[in-house]
Specification:
By secondary structure, this protein is an alpha+beta fold. It is 34% helix and 36% strand. The protein has three helices and eight strands, in the order αααββββββββ.
Length: 141
């Protein structure tokens, strides 16, 4: 197959070769621009509901540091979350989440290891890398 492609390339006129190269560069440019626009969206994402979701999902949110975390949150695309802490003897919780507005996430608890269900809570994101739960700031890991 490689040989056939080489022969076809040799048979093309210079004008057609230029046209093929331009099309390839145009397609590659579209892919690169799409990736860079996602990067811009990610850096500014807490300014929109969709951006807030994209920042929140699929990463670990940890406190205080990745080398010695005492708390963690994980948000899934299906609208569920889980969290855990080692503070006060440790606890894990599960529930549902939704974006109320740019940088504002509501969590509703459905289950905990302690058996008590906390009230709904509003979490805030001031940037794509910072999640505030109560007075505690979690970082993206």
């Amino acid at each position: 197959m490689e040989w056939k492609l080489q022969n076809r390339w040799k048979d093309l006129s210079t004008g057609k070769k230029i046209f093929v190269v331009i099309i390839i560069l145009w397609l590659a440019g579209g892919i690169i621009n799409r990736d860079s626009s996602n990067s811009v969206e990610t850096s500014m994402s807490v300014e929109t509901n969709e951006g807030t979701k994209s920042c929140l999902i699929g990463v670990d949110w940890i406190y205080p540091s990745s080398s010695n975390p005492t708390g963690a949150w994980k948000f899934s695309l299906d609208g569920t979350f889980n969290s855990s802490t080692t503070a006060f003897g440790g606890m894990s919780a599960w529930g549902n989440w939704s974006v109320l507005g740019p940088g504002k996430i509501e969590v509703s608890y459905t289950r905990t290891t302690e058996g008590t269900i906390p009230s709904n809570q509003i979490l805030t994101m001031s940037s794509c890398g910072s999640l505030k739960v109560g007075s505690t700031n979690y970082s993206k890991y």
